[in-house]
Amino acid sequence: MDGEASYFLPHYRLQNLLDALQHAGFNCIGPQVRDGGIVYEPLTHASQLPWGIRDHQSPGQYRLIKTDEKKAFSFANGAQALKPILFKPRETVWRVVRDENGKLEFKPHYSKEQPIAILGVRSCDLVAMAIQDKVFLRENHVDPRYEERRKSLFIIAINCSYASGNCFCVSAGSGPEVNNPFDILMTEIHDGLVVKAGSKRGHEIIAALKLEMARVEQNDEAANNVAQAAAMQTKRIPLENGYGLRDVLFSNLDHPRWEQVADRCLSCGNCTQVCPTCFCHSETEEPALDGSCSEHHREWDSCFTSGHSYLNGKVIRDDTRKRYRQWLTHKVGSWFDQFDVSGCVGCGRCISWCPVGIDLTEELAAISGEANEREKM
Amino acid sequence: MTNGFLSDPYLPIEAEVLACTHETANIFNLHISFIERHHHNLYAFHPGQFNMVYLYGVGEVAISIVSDPEEKHVISHTIRALGRVTRALQQLRVGAHIGIRGPFGRGWPLHKAQGKDMVIITGGLGCAPAVSIINYILARRSQYGKLKILQGVKHSDDFIFRQQYEKWQMSSDIEIHIAADQAGPKWPWSVGYVTDMIETLDLDPRNTVAMMCGPEMMMHTAISALTKKGISEHDIYLSMERNMECGIGHCGHCQYGGLFVCKDGPVFAYPEIKALFKVAGF
Questions:
Q1: B262 and B201 in one domain?
Q2: Which pTM value belongs to this model?
Q3: Which distant-in-sequence residues (6+ apart) come within 8 Å of A223 by Cβ?
Q4: Which of A165, A289, A347, B142 has its CA 20 to 30 A from that of B199?
């Protein structure tokens, strides 16, 4: 809670924030309950927020419960939040029109959407976004669609005040306190949010709300809540989520644990779909029925499919052992070679959403010999 | 390498088929040129790089470029009809319009190899990346030392570049070795393995660069044979193949450990890929 002045946004004035963002031209996306989970969807009314809702997560488990607290952000991340907004699960990248002479005209496709303001982004997802930036905004290889959405995105981040049983961002070095750039940062306390600006446009939105400065005890309560989210985490990723993981994995490519985990793994790819850093996608073609044009799409792919490693009529990763090993050795191994950082941000989604409850920290513990449980603080 | 040619790296440029010539029932050469001729001035490649070739309504496929980089009007690809897109490409007629994205990846270090003796090793059904080197060197013969070409095939019936090799053989100062693991009657070349051929070569290990493509098992055997002859691993280059869909390191399919074959390769010096070479599943 340093540097920038912090203000107090009472819960009952959250609607003013949404209105100010809409007035500034943003389509506001925020958390809400749908089908038994917290999802990030268009948000027009503060009443749509998940007031008093909290999740319980454990390997292969995700359940929502009601609490007595009247808070809007007292949950830990659900299956998705920021990634599908910037890197869409399915997107048309270009269209080609063929005339009667067979001449082709290629037309790039841009979604031309209203700029998005996302409310309630967690630190793990901001760290993940910075990693996806390295994939899609690399010099000479920029994806213009991702770039357009990324540049206009207005980020209202929130420091976590609760951690689920699967969260391990403290050990991953990616949370629960936000350290990445944001437009506005919030921390929830019992009757509202302590907010501060991180950009010029963030300042403008906060100024328009004419908020009072946060009092010392409000700042203290906010800081305590974040400390509590850190303290309640029970899981940890071994070897500080560092280069040591890469070395230990690549020197254990024949470890018997790969066979064991392959016996449990269904190769369903859920882990890759919920992972906020997984970037694999495949390109598909959809010709119109009348033959006059064709659309070129890209959609999320997974290294757990057989098509992912298809080559010249064969599949390179022809069993689950090779696929799980590819996923894990990439995520926290060769990711360092590619992007100079781990591909794991400690969000724990791959653990919650694995139908058989495979826990990556446990698999890493088995191979590295270092515990995946945190010592009590 | 930088690619100022494509403003949107996902969007193909329109090209037309100038000729489609068949080597065998399923290997063919596709010669194309851009519809907008000025695109040829902006398009510059190195042998060993590849294009993403798009067929209308069907999709894209990564194909190595075999024409000479100095040729400014025609781009040629040698293609084996094996998958969905390549089989459909085989049906193309002269004048048909297609899409091209490229060039992508890192090609052969042919500038660095100037003045050196060259050993080109290919296996299996023949390999377009090797053809691009051989044509390049033959067009600049004085810039390189001795040129040796080794081709291994499983069975003599698989040897399909007879005409090409006969043409190459007419050039002076070129040594060609072809071996089939198994040979039928009237096979004029050797019977045996690529390894056996390497053992009999007269090589100057300090002045030789080896470049190879083909099945990974064959390349692995060839590398051991070359290093036994005293050639440094740093002087051995391989062209790798993996599933490629984007060509720019975004789609993730071509990952080989920490490398993206599409942008970091497809040509690698052996030490760059040694750690995972021969580990099944990468």
A1: yes
A2: 0.94
A3: A1, A187
A4: B142
